[in-house]
Request: fold
Amino acid sequence: MLSKTRIERGQGSVQKTRDALDEAASRVDNARRDFMKLFGYGSAGLMMGGLGVGPDGEPSLIGSAQAGGDGQGHRRGRSPYANAFQFEGNLLYMNIGTTGASPQQVVRHLFEDYRDISRRPTAYFFGQQVMRNTIAPGFGCDPYELVMSFNTTDGLWRTVMGIPFQPGDEVITTNMEEDAGISAVNILADRFGVVLRHVNLPTNDAYSDAEVMARFAAELTPNTRAILFSSPVYLTGARLPEKALCLWAAQNDLISIVDGAHGPGMLALDLHDMGCDFYAGAGHKWQCGPGQTGFLYIRNNNHPEDRVVQRPTSDLAPFGVPSDTVDIPIPGYSNTNPLPTYYPTNTLIYGAAGILKDGVRNPDHNIAAVLQLVGNGSRPSQNALTETCMLWDAWGRADIEDYVIALAQYLRARIADIWGSQSLSMPFTDGDPDPVARVGLTSFNPFSPGADYNADLDAAASAAQRAQSSAAVATLRDDYDIVVRNNSVPHSLRSDPTQNAAPGTFSSPLRISTHLFHSYRDVDRVVDALIEVTPPA
Reply:
């Protein structure tokens, strides 16, 4: 249990971040955006379970899951989005980095959709073109480029196995990838003779975007073919300089692959502006869709200017079947490089209409239609994912990001005030968060000597810390009804910040996810519990 000197809260950074959180919550409370202005559907409707169609034929939301209320919810300690979600009893769920929770409206429609199919069984091969038309603008991309995948792992594997790597090609990745990325690059090495080069990502005060860029540049050789990195990083919550890395890759004629498992639903993404060639994201984490849903983005153009594009509403339009069309605005591309060769690795219709035949790319091709058709899918799950995306667009993705980050900054300020800023995975400032801190994942380590995230550990100290950290997670769950998680992190070393911890000496910090259904009172609750379960000063 912490001593009194460590729980005395100053009014400086904590109050500043609380004020910023109040402002973000007020913007959410007052926002009633007409999200359909983002699209331009004309008379096209979303004829699928759980989504309403207005009298003008445009998609509309069933109104039960709305943000806001009387505008005072946050000041009473409730999230502006709280009415849309329902958690059991006193549960405080703060592990969205593993999986999210769907809004109750979506859960109800998911159940109704499954019930309808069970009563009148039908195969479900089509209907995703309208879904992709609906989802893509919210992520800053073209529906022709967005595939509704099974999860991030599915998207990453379909990416790396579709690129014709050759023996001796090199891929730069990092030492903090999730298992999906690690497995994907390892099979490239074992099966195709690809050489892997690893960037050790810095933590705490060793971190800067410039340092990250320098470490990637140090791994570049004439044989480098691609980079693969996660952002946000699941271990530390760092938001790497995504655009800078992707455009650096483009300048060096490299393919950029982003593991964005934690991006959709947390961040207001603009994939065209990011400049990545491939982006794999989760639908079930921060986007709060059902399990086994995700997104795969494949850049299929390089036009630098914003445009309005006509897209079909039928999945069969790419193969000559007549279809109505809708006008959809898309942003220009920051990456204007030629498109890399890519083979579809999972499709029923390889080469149909010449799309991706022999890996050849054409900006006019609806490559998502080929990649989407993999057999009988889960219509209820895909409908539900579409509905969560519609809700996020209605609430405003930029407003959601602002609220989530303000909430996380308040958490980080509380942690810094009690355990010190050295306990956090990333540098902390009490003003506007640096871009690296614009995430809803907070990693901190009250278990290391001096609560120092970068403390050197030997094997015995590492094992003891892992046991202590795991015990804290279990106690929070069992005694306080609070769910967080811990990780094993190859942190930077205080003794030599250019080096990271070796296997067997990793640290075991806690990781806390704050999302749109949380409030400042939830943050205070988890901090108060942590004061009781962490080791004494």
User: Anything to note?
Assistant: The chain has two domains: 4-22+398-533, 128-388.
